Amino acid sequence: MEKVKLGNSEIEFKPLVFGGNVFGWTVDEKQSFALLDAFIDMGFSLIDTSNNYSHWVPGHSGSESETIIGKWISKRDIRDKIQIATKVGGRRIDNSKPNLKKEYIIKSVEDSLLRLNVDTIDLYQSHHDDLTTGIDETLEAYHHLIQTGKIKWIGASNLSPERISESLQIAEDHNLPYYIAIQPEYNLYDRMKYEEQYEQLAVDNHLGVISYYSLASGFLSGKYRSIDDIKETKRYDALKDRFNARGLRILDVLAEIAHTQQASMSAIALAWNLHRPSVTAPIVSATSIQQLEELSRAVEIKLTPEECFLLDKASSY
C-alpha cells in the first residue's frame, strides 16, 4: 500500500501506526528495540506514544515509553526515517486531572523532547480535554512551540466533537494552529460513536484519523472465540460483554474471511478499518515480531466488496 498523508499536514507514512503503550510495560527495553527495528524494516514510520505511558503500572513514573523510544533513537541513525507522535495533558501517576494550560504544555514538551532524544515532535496531541482551561490558551501554547521549532503539527485525542469544532473555529478566528488529526476509538465492534459523532467532522475539516483500540482490546484478534476462553485471563472484565450475539457474529465472519484471505483475523479487522475512507491509519501494538508481521499484512489485504458488505452487516447495530 502507498503512503498516506495525515490530514492537511506534511506527515506521510505507510498506514499503520505503532502504539508505544507497550514499551516498558508488557515488553522490556530489549524487546521494544527489536519491535521498533522490525517495524521500520517493514517500511513503516509513525510511532505513537504519550508522556504518561505507562503510569498505570505500579512503580512506574509514566515516562517509560518515551524514554525507551528515545534510547532506541539515540542508538539508531533513523530520525529522518520516522515520525514521532506523542501526547500531553493526560492523567499522571498521581492521578492528576488533565492539564492543557500553557505553562504546563511548554514544560511538558521540554521533558518529552529530552526523553525522546529529538529536537522536534512531528505530532503533538492533546491527550484528554481540560475543561478548566480556555481553548485559546492551549492553542497559544502550541503556537509558541511551533514557532520555536519544538513541534510541527497538533492533534486531538479524546476531545468531544463539540470541543474539536470549537477549537478549529478559534484557530481560524485568531490565526492559531489547528488540529490536523484526531485519535478516536474505532474498530469493527465499536463503530457507533465514531461514525455518528466524529466521522463527518473529520471529513468536513480534512482531519486525519488515527484509530485506537483498533482490535477492541484483543476481542477481534481471534485469540478468544467464546467467553470461556477469557475466564482465566486478565482481559475478562474488558471483554466479557462483547461475547453477545453481535460480537460472536462478527467473529464468525472475520474467521471466514481470514480463511479465504489466508490471513489472521487481526489483519482482516485492521484491513476493514483501512477500507473506511475517513480513516487514515489504525494504531497497533505488538509484543512479538511474529505478531507484528501478522498485523502488518493488513496494509496489503484487498477486501472484496462482498467481504466489506459481510463485515458491515455482521457489525451493524
From TrEMBL:
InterPro entries: AKR_Detox_Biosynth, NAD(P)_OxRdtase_dom_sf, NADP_OxRdtase_dom. SUPFAM superfamilies: NAD(P)-linked oxidoreductase. It comes from the Bacteria. GO terms for cellular component: cytosol. Pfam families: Aldo_ket_red. Signal peptide: none annotated. Residues 15-314 form the NADP-dependent oxidoreductase domain. PANTHER family: NADH-SPECIFIC METHYLGLYOXAL REDUCTASE-RELATED, OXIDOREDUCTASE-RELATED. This is Aldo/keto reductase.
